[in-house]
């Protein structure tokens, strides 16, 4: 280690050149590779940085996917902007723990970045927030605060007395993401507390009238969607806010990637009402194009959040009106995730990220139009924002759709995720990478034709 420390400038320069070669090669790199690698035993004697980099390049790098590249359309995966990569590298170099105030300005940088993000999504001063690892943890934090709110309605503290003090809980949603069920399990509310509410005909958006019928006056939680997984459908947030004025419930909005519609004047109406939500989830390593792992959570009830996550240890200090993040999220220590976001927002501003959103949306519509004209393929939903959901025209069984996905990946030109939309096995292409261009859509469509025409 001390030898590597003496050579640190050269070591970092070598790493920089190697990383640059990876990033510049993304457009031509096979999008996915699935060759398994057998495990090796723990080294007893190290081989130094140069040896480690050489071994990594030979043994592991060839099997890494081009998930950061322009034609990886599985899930909703952004790449990393140049500025966010620089910010992420500096995060490791400075190695700050922003969860506690320890003589560093890192927590203040996070607070500033959270305020920027709130402004980006149209949230007001009443919303406070913190960085977490991803949408799953963001939903977990939001629902944990909602759980404490349910206790408040009953005159109990779940944080102190346990979830048993609540009794039966109802969580209503139209098309909840799987992470919501995971969060309910972790929080002790149980997956069975999730009550699916009918959606509008041909939509994934909740039927607000049916929801109103199911709310009986007992305090409940409603999980709304600002961008569903398969079709990027949006619940009518304004109608839900109006309903909340007549029925008693906590409104949590899962805006993991759909919240970025706020950046586009053409689509901002989809998140009208978001500023009235009690808690909000937004995933930043999706459409903001910062490195994994990075998300943010917002709530209007920081006082309840503090009750849930307060860390009672003398060496960590007491919570104040401006509590350290150690008292606000599940983690006592973590890296300065905010720095990559601060860099990309500072470097490219609202306008630069608006361009990414609008370009990705236009590219998704382009692919949707091409698929609509392709005999072997059939759209399952109109393209609403940045996801194209489609299936095979002929006999789209689960096995045949899975085979189509394997063939598409085997071209090396793109990767699409499989899904089941309203009972129909399907494929979905999610556009969220800042690098993706119209020429990539042509390459993707050609791969679909090659893979699916004779299925």
TrEMBL record:
It holds the Pfam family Pyridoxal_deC. Its cofactor is pyridoxal 5'-phosphate. Signal peptide: none annotated. Gene3D superfamilies: 3.90.1150.170, Aspartate Aminotransferase, domain 1, Type I PLP-dependent aspartate aminotransferase-like (Major domain). Keywords: Decarboxylase, Lyase, Pyridoxal phosphate. PANTHER family: GROUP II PYRIDOXAL-5-PHOSPHATE DECARBOXYLASE, MIP05841P. Belongs to the group II decarboxylase family. This is Glutamate/tyrosine decarboxylase-like PLP-dependent enzyme. It comes from Saccharothrix longispora. The lineage of its organism: Bacteria, Bacillati, Actinomycetota, Actinomycetes, Pseudonocardiales.
